[in-house]
Design brief:
By secondary structure, this protein is an alpha/beta fold. It has a domain of 195 residues: Vaccinia Virus protein VP39 (Rossmann fold). Helix content is 41%, strand content 19%. The protein has eleven helices and ten strands. The strands form two sheets. A seven-stranded mixed β-sheet has the order 3-2-1-4-5-10-7, sandwiched between helices. A three-stranded antiparallel β-sheet has the order 6-9-8.
């Protein structure tokens, strides 16, 4: 989350949706919705036992605990976030669960300062979407990873693709208002489109890039996840003059109508699961001792050049 987004939301140094108990509950549910995709991406990125992993923009730590169970006690997880309140919640849950190999770091990724080449893996979800400029954060992650290490990201590819089927003009109007608001809040919401460019500019290579499009019926995880977000977010936009209060009421009524009717499907924002790799260092070419001796031997000033005699061809007589 960018500082500008936090300031405009009236919550300095915290998340744009806040960090209260209700938001903690929503984030826990959101994590549950995307847990399967998290594990699939980590498998493609090669997360394994004993790895040292960064969890960037960890929030209250739901992803951190998943990563901790993947790398095991022989590994380590450094969970980084801008919210001290969320990190306190993470530390409390960590101690209850006995995940002592999870450490925390307060601060944004823009100022990530860890030992160079000290981590095997990094993961982030919906982090770079909220940053006005991702180039320096990408450089910081690249610096933190060892040669050959991987960086796994879940980011939005097309947030505005979200819709309901059959179409609802009220729903589409709300989605369009959100899309217009993102740049004003310092967000680059569809950042997945720029990841290949950012990777090339900072020394990463793209190992894997897979779009994720999900559709759900009324009452499904795919239905409930955007519904819970929009119920909160549209009111936030209205408080900042970016959405009409009357339109908020209209959305709430439409959502209740669609849910009660039960015959709609919701297409979620299109995501991308991306794996970047920091290239391994080129192996030094091995030179044998004999080759070194040959190179060190001084060249002869004169060479005895003898004529080559082919088989079956008589030699020419020498001059006397």
């Amino acid at each position: 989350m960018s500082n500008r987004a936090r300031r405009d939301a009236g919550e300095p140094d915290e998340y744009v949706l806040g960090t209260d108990a209700e938001e903690l509950r929503r984030l826990r549910f959101q994590h549950f919705v995307w847990t399967e995709q998290l594990h699939a991406l980590c498998a493609r990125a090669g997360f394994r036992d004993g790895d040292a992993a960064l969890d960037l923009g960890c929030g209250p730590g739901f992803t951190s605990f998943e990563l901790a169970r993947i790398v095991g006690p022989r590994g380590q997880v450094l969970a980084c976030d801008v919210s001290a309140r969320f990190l306190r919640a993470l530390e409390s849950q960590r101690d209850r669960d006995g995940l002592s190999w999870v450490a925390t770091r307060l601060g944004g990724i823009e100022g990530l300062d860890v030992e160079p080449a000290s981590f095997d893996r990094a993961y982030s979800r919906w982090l770079f979407s909220w940053l006005p400029d991702s180039l320096e954060p990408f450089r910081r992650v690249h610096r933190a990873l060892r040669p050959g290490a991987t960086f796994a990201l879940h980011e939005y590819l097309d947030w505005g693709a979200m819709t309901v089927v059959p179409r609802s003009e009220v729903f589409d109007h709300a989605v369009a208002a959100c899309v217009r608001a993102w740049p004003r809040l310092g967000a680059t919401i569809d950042i997945a489109r720029d990841v290949p460019r950012l990777a090339a500019a900072t020394g990463f290579v793209v190992d894997d890039f897979q779009p994720i499009a999900r559709v759900g019926t009324v009452g499904s995880l795919e239905w409930r996840w955007p519904g819970e977000f929009l119920a909160v977010w549209l009111r936030k936009l209205a408080a900042q003059g970016l959405f009409d209060t009357a339109d908020c009421d209209a959305f709430d009524d439409e959502w209740r109508r669609l849910t009660a009717a039960g015959d709609s499907r919701l297409v979620t924002p299109t995501m991308a699961g991306i794996v970047l790799r920091k290239p391994p260092q080129p192996r030094a070419r091995r030179v044998s001792a004999r080759a070194v001796q040959r190179r060190a031997r001084p060249a002869s000033k004169t060479r005895d050049v003898r004529p080559i005699r082919r088989r079956g061809v008589p030699a020419l007589p020498r001059d006397r």
